[in-house]
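REQUEST
  id: r-88c1
  op: predict_structure
  target: 6-phosphofructo-2-kinase domain-containing protein
  payload:
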Amino acid sequence: VFNVGNRRRIASKGDNRNGTSHSHAFFDPQNRAAKTIRDELALESLEELIHWLKQGGRVGIHDATNSSRERRKMLLNRLASEPNCRVLFIESICTDPVVLAHNISMKLSSPDYKGIDVAQARDDFRKRLDNYEKSYQTLGEEDEEDGIQYCKLINVGKKVIAYNIQGYLAGQCIFYLMNFNLSPRSIWLTRHGESLDNIVGKIGGDAPLSAKGKRYGACLSRFIKYRRQENEKTRRAEYEAGTAMSPQRERTVAVWTSMLTRTKETVEEFDPKEYDIKHIRFLNEIYA
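RESPONSE
  id: r-88c1
  status: 200
  body:
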C-alpha cells in the first residue's frame, strides 16, 4: 500500500502547528499552492508504486483521495507509458450516518491529529470532508470513456457496482471487496489443555487430556463466554453513542480445532448451540 497521506506527513516532518500540512485548509480545492503539493505527492507515491511493481510486485494500492477526474486523468496519463500496469479504481461511497460517525471517530486517531483536542480534531476533519466534497466527482461515464476498470462500494459493501472488470487479478480484487467486512471482531489463539503425553514429555501422538487439561478446557470456555459478554456491552454502548455500526451480538462464534483428541477434548465445555465448532484436519500437528 502506497499511502499519500504518510508521504505528506513525512514531507512536512509532522509539523501541523501552522495549519498548512494537516489542517483542513491544506485540502481546500481553492488553495492552489496546496493543490500543487498534493498532486506532486500523489505522483511521487505513484512512481514508488510503479518501481515496486517492476521489482516483482503484483498488486499495488495507490491510497489517495483521487476523487476528481483531473486527478484520475493525471495518474492515467503517467501510467499510459507503463503497458504492463492495469488500473482498477475503487470508490467508497458512504451515506449511512452511523457508518460515517464510526469512520470519523477512527480517523481522529490518525497521526494527523496526534496531540490535538478531540473536539478540535473532529471539527477540523469535518471541514476537510467539506473540502473533499467541493471537488468530488464520482466515477461515471466520463471515466468510462477512458476504458478504465472501476468498482464502487456503497455503505461498506451493501451495494457493489463493478464496471469493465477484466482479468483474473481484477476479478479477485472485486471478490475480496465484496466479502470485505469492517465489523470489529476478536480472534483468540490457544494451545490445547495438558495431555497425558505432555506429562511424560512425549511429543506427538494422540493422547487424551489429563485432569489438569480438562480443567483448562472448562476455564477456557468460561473465559470466552465472559469476553463475549464484555464485547457485547462495549458494542451496545458504542451504538448508543452513535459510533458503532451495529448493536447486535455476533450470531455465531467459530471454534476451530484439529482432529486430534487433545484439541477436541479442550473444547468439550463449549455449548454447540452457542458456538460453531469445527474439527479440521489441516490444523493437525505436522508429523504428530
